[in-house]
């Protein structure tokens, strides 16, 4: 059987990886797929660079639409990124009857519903293992490996840039701004790091995982997103003293019961017990923990970015598509793990909850005057709100200013409560004259 | 479309889990599979117990062959275990044109070649996610998630019983025999624990993974198997002082180069750096680390045994089969990840190596007389054999016997060497009059 023909849209970091790994491991890949997989056409604005990577046997063009129009191309791999031209090209490739592989988490988290509907109508596959956690086969685990389970929650370190920054802040006791500059110098953070450090990238990935885990449509617009830019070194240190690490987690949690039926979809810095495996995932590495009713806790760890790790995921999709290209749609795995016609009903039954409905526990840091009665006032307010306290850490007073006035940090860990309740309690505590600075609030998850 | 019909051979711990999870999550599973999956017939020698689990709507028989003979049954799930009757029944089910799901690692590691050949001839699937690492979808990750890669090595904690015992020995400073009894009392070890503690179970699983990773046939008879029964508490303590943990690992490693082209397939207690994630996998949990050329290191963690974790894997296979039952064989994933007709050639090119060809580093513990010159003699012998030393730990002498004679433990960590070379060096050291007891040798892997 002749090789399946692949066209790459974009041959930068990931595209080069795809091309090189397909070349290097072509024999092993053919032995697995039962058929050769060949990149025969590449579109890139930088035609010279593309020629340098792809060599003389590959047709290089600067117009992505020429790849889509080529009747010999079976699979289009979209590696352009973003919501703009990438969306148009993916939809055009689908309309042309091509199968599509994409690493574009932003596109799928925002426009997935439209894209999967178009693909379903044309009977083509859209595969996206590379869109979440790079080389870790987490999409396959969720879509196929855990199909027996009712998934309860997913919590993942799914952005390498922020995990690198948090690891460095903890290891070296440095502040965010300093470490960000170092990360940019080392290539772990981009020149414009906004999507990473503000949590948007992690939220794209968490959105995709929430859909696959719970059988709901992608709903990025309803995700709660909080990055790491406001995180102080002091909080990392206090968390450590209390036996916790702070990680930027993407969380998708199913809630059911008397209070609320729905899904929490949130990205934010999170205290997690230092003894958990995921708390020990350092540097730019990724890991995803999945809690499901039959299997219990499973964890998946690996490189979440980079040329060849991401290429590993793209090529796994190419192999799957090669195998199923001539099969009926019913033989294929549904795009978002669940049969598409069931998603709307699930969305109604399992809405994405607003932040005020989150149920979690909290780390609070209050800068307070070192006076008698402050702790009693603060804990009295929490008790009045029905929030119970798990632990308190009061630092020795440090002198500031003149006239003998002193301030101190008061750290409180709470048990689980409703976020709306906590917001009200924080507003009340903030109004106390002995609370001298904005209160720091970081969510805490036990992940057990 | 009417539900796919499943017959269970055996409804003990795992079978009950399969039945219960399929019932409890039937709606979610149907939404994923696109079709209902129902257990409609069960064979178990204990018909009463089977009826109690399966209820009145399921046909219960005491003859497994009645399930295989039932033309309405699409998939037979073999949960009997062992090489005997299970093998006959699996082959009969295949001959009857049934798809087969099995959790039987022993059967596949020993008779896999025959079973897969029979299945291939009949055009039926044989799926076995539950055979390795219980609920962790490691077979799927290796067969499908990492298809882009040339896999270099796999190292796994793939036997929960022995990991529980080793964790307890380390935590509580207890000896093997004491902990084994505790494990049996708690249900973590069977009344006859031989297959677990002697490493046979782990070797079955490592054998299956070696085939899927490297595209070779299952060759359990060539596996090197060493259990944990000889492991002393002292070695766990010394390892800890040197920054290592001791775990029973199943290892499959590709070797290529001037010295040897082949596969190391081995199960034995192993020192691994305490800072590795897998070194912190405690109790009965399982984890598998995979090193591959494109993706780098990935790790998969979860429950390796138990009713519902194992059922999770069995049902994932049922969903895959449900989806592909009416597809052509070419649309399915090859049994051992690689096209069957390519395995024999690979076996010739990549033979399983004898133990003397292993390349690894070592932990050695020598009980020596506390005399001047002993360390020089021992290190001189190692140098003469071309084995270089990484670290030495000499304990203070402890008094034994009368007349002021003293003994001490000498611990040596070596760099990588050939096992045959190490065997010779150990024989020479053992012959020294100042070496007072059999030398302890434990292999060491950095896993980086």
From TrEMBL, chains A, B:
Protein EC: 1.1.1.3
The pathway it acts in is: Amino-acid biosynthesis; L-threonine biosynthesis; L-threonine from L-aspartate: step 3/5; Amino-acid biosynthesis; L-methionine biosynthesis via de novo pathway; L-homoserine from L-aspartate: step 3/3
Going by the UniProt record, its keywords in alphabetical order are: Amino-acid biosynthesis, Methionine biosynthesis, NADP, Oxidoreductase, Threonine biosynthesis
Mention one GO molecular function.
homoserine dehydrogenase activity
Q: Which residues form the ACT domain?
A: 363-444
Enzyme class, broadest EC rank: oxidoreductase
Instruction: Classify the source by domain of life.
Output: Bacteria
Pfam families referenced in this protein's UniProt entry, alphabetically: ACT, Homoserine_dh, NAD_binding_3
Family as reported in the entry's similarity comment: Belongs to the homoserine dehydrogenase family.
PANTHER family in alphabetical order: HOMOSERINE DEHYDROGENASE
Q: Which protein are we looking at? A: Homoserine dehydrogenase
Write the lineage as a comma-separated list: Bacteria, Pseudomonadati, Pseudomonadota, Betaproteobacteria, Burkholderiales
């Amino acid at each position: 059987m002749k090789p399946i023909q692949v066209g790459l849209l974009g041959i930068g970091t990931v595209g080069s990886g795809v091309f090189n790994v397909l070349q290097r491991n072509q024999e092993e890949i053919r032995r697995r797929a039962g058929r050769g997989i060949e990149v025969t056409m590449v579109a890139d604005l930088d035609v010279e660079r593309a020629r340098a990577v792809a060599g003389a046997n590959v047709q290089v063009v600067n117009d992505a639409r020429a790849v889509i129009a080529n009747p010999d191309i079976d699979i289009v791999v979209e590696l352009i990124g973003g919501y703009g031209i990438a969306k148009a090209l993916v939809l055009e490739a689908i309309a042309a009857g091509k199968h599509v592989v994409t690493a574009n988490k932003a596109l799928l988290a925002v426009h997935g519903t439209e894209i999967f509907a178009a693909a379903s109508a044309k009977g083509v596959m859209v595969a996206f293992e590379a869109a979440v956690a790079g080389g870790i086969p987490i999409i396959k685990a969720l879509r196929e490996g855990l199909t027996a389970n009712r998934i309860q929650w997913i919590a993942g370190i799914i952005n390498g840039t922020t995990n690198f920054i948090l690891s460095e802040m903890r290891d070296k006791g440095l502040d965010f701004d300093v470490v960000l500059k170092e990360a940019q110098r080392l290539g772990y953070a981009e020149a414009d790091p906004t999507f990473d450090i503000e949590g948007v990238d992690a939220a794209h990935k968490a959105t995709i995982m929430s859909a696959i885990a719970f059988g709901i449509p992608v709903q990025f617009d309803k995700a709660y997103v909080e990055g790491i830019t406001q995180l102080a070194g002091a909080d990392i240190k206090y968390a450590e003293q209390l036996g916790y690490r702070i990680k930027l987690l993407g969380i998708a949690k199913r809630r059911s019961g008397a209070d609320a039926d729905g899904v929490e979809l949130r990205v934010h810095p999170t205290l997690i017990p230092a003894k958990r495996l995921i708390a020990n995932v350092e540097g730019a590495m990724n890991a995803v923990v999945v809690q499901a009713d039959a299997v219990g806790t499973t964890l998946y760890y690996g490189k979440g970015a980079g040329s060849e790790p991401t290429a590993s995921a793209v090529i796994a999709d190419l192999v799957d598509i090669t195998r199923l290209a001539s099969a009926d749609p019913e033989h294929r795995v549904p795009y978002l793990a669940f049969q598409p016609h069931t998603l709307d009903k699930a969305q109604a039954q399992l809405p994405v909850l607003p932040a005020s409905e989150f149920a979690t526990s909290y780390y609070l840091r209050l800068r307070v005057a070192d006076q008698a009665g402050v702790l009693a006032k603060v804990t009295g307010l929490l008790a009045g709100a029905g929030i119970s306290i798990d632990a308190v850490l009061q630092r020795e007073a440090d002198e500031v200013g003149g006239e003998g006035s002193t301030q101190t940090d008061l750290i409180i860990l709470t048990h689980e409560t409703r976020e709306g309740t906590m917001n009200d309690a924080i507003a009340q505590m903030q109004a106390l004259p002995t609370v001298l600075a904005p209160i720091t609030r970081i969510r805490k998850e036990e992940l057990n």
